[in-house]
Amino acid sequence: MNKLFLLGAVLSALCPLALGQAQENVLYSFAGSPDGTAPVGKLVADSVGNLYGTTSAGGSTAYCEGCGTVFELFRNTDGTYTESILYEFCQQASCTDGWNPQAGLVFDASGNLYGTTLSGGGPQCYQGGGCGTVFELSPPSNSGSPWSVTQLYQFCQLPGQDTCPDGALSASKLVFDSIGNLYGTKSRGGANGVGGVVFELSPSGNGWTEAVLYSFCSEKSGGNCADGSVPMAGVTFDKSGNIYGTTESGGSNKYIGGGVVYELSKSKGAWKESVLHAFVAQNGPDGGTLLGEVDLDAAGNIYSTALQGGLDNLGVVFRLNGKGQNEQFLSFDGANGASPTTGVLIDAKSGALYGTTSGGGSGNGTVYKVAGSHEIVVLYSFDGATNGDGSNPEGALILDDKGNLYGTTKAGGVVSSDCDTGCGTVFEISR
Question: 76 lies in a domain?
């Protein structure tokens, strides 16, 4: 039975759940090389329903078999999808174009795609393989021609991981502001070399200029970081232009911090960080180890998930008010999912929350919903290799105007020589 523990008021803003059996459709199963492998980022859709995303591995270039791809799923008139690879990473021996994209993509108003890579971009990083890039993919002017890639920025422009004030290692999904600047996070680097950063990229002449808005772990105490450390997820803007996000760890000087929810606000041209809520421990009863983005409802309440903690130490869905107080949470118990690696999607029409867990359910992860019943209700439980439906979803969901959900699984699907448990899928959950 789902276990519920609420601090403060109940989740009264959520609307009642219309119970019903959800159906999963595998839209595409990846096959490894020369196809993609292990999609872990969030999808993005264009105006006609075509889907775009990244695979963290797979592809086949002259210098790297398995450095990752950008793909498109084209929606056919009969409702099926056809996959095409728009770009394979590491097309030069030094991988200056990056490799291992682990986050989703974002469109600009002209139809260009923007994303990040974990590694590559240059020789300077802690293992000599580059600390990642921000890239732009532009559609061809002529049908049938390839998309073109432009490297907008390479991180760690000084040698050595601990001397990367501009950020290093894992990079999040990007987000645009209203005037065309890009924002994201890097999990390491910064002023102290270890805590990670929130960064901004601004168009400047024929290039882009990076600015670090905040470096985490600005104050160390007992090896911990009261302001948070290791931001794995991207950022979210509110209507006033404030930035919100999460960190994997930090936030407590007494225990191994379980992470924080933070806000960056701008005053007199400078950005200031405020810790809205600090999770006490990585396995704390109210959750810990935050890997997902936050989402905000119309009232300014903040929602996300924690990988660990809760009543069974299998993770939680939580809500904070706009000041980070009155935390309320629902615990995963295995049957309803376990170990969520992404935040939640708020349905603006109904107020319901949707998300994925990388484990639990039948053992290979779930798609779940939270609504007026204040329960985590499983919409679909993945069986993995049993029936080829996918396993271990680690990317966030998107919702179409008909109420269908779309996402990816890291494994499962068709088993190939490259992936003995499947190379991952793109799926649809319809009702």
Answer: yes
